[in-house]
Amino acid sequence: TRAQSGEQALELVRAQEFDVVFSDVVMPGMGGLKLAEALASEHPRLPVVLATGYSQEIAQAGSGGRPVITKPYRLATLSDAIGQALRAAKMAD
Q: What angle do CA 44, 28, 89 make, to 5 degrees?
């Protein structure tokens, strides 16, 4: 499922169940870090994987322990990050 903004992603997650959320850090409106924080408060077991081409944003704000992949990335890198996030969520249960 694709969302056009962080706000839309939050609405989608409120309306249906997801296994994982993959978000860019820098987006118009609600950025990925704010989205991840909102999701953590509403759905603490929902894993979030972040992507960024701007490491300064993550360096300043931190990722909150969430996996972060840097752009450009390979599909295998994304797959590994999602797998790690899902495994960590299962271990937390």
A: 20
| C-alpha closest to that of 85 among 28, 26, 39, 53 | 39
> pTM to 2 decimals?
0.87
**CA pair distance 31, 26, nearest whole angstrom:** 5
Sheet of 48-52: strand order equals 21-24, 48-52, 68-70
- In angstroms, rounded to a whole number, what is the distance separating the alpha carbons of residues 81 and 17? 20
Residue pLDDT, tens place only, 46-74: 999 999 887 666 655 667 778 889 899 99
Largest CA distance in the chain: 33
